[in-house]
Amino acid sequence: MGEPRTTLPDPRRTPRYAGVPTFCRFPLIELVPASQRPVDWALYGVPFDAGVTYRPGARFGPRAIRIESQYVKPYHLAHDVKITDVLSLADAGDAPVHPFDLEANVSEVASWASAVGDPKHTKLMAVGGDHSIALANIRATHKRRSGGGAKPLALIHFDSHLDTVDQLSGERYTHASPFIRAIEEKLIDPSRMLSIGIKGPLNTRDDLDFARKHGVTLVSYNQWRAEGTKTIDAFLSKLGDAETYLTFDIDCVDPAYAPGTGTPSVGGFTSAEVLSLLRHLAKFNPNLVGADVVEVLPDRDHGGITSLLAAHVMFEILALDAMRRK
Question: Which of 77, 99, 187, 208 is deepest in the core (most CB within 10 A)?
Answer without folding.
Answer: 187
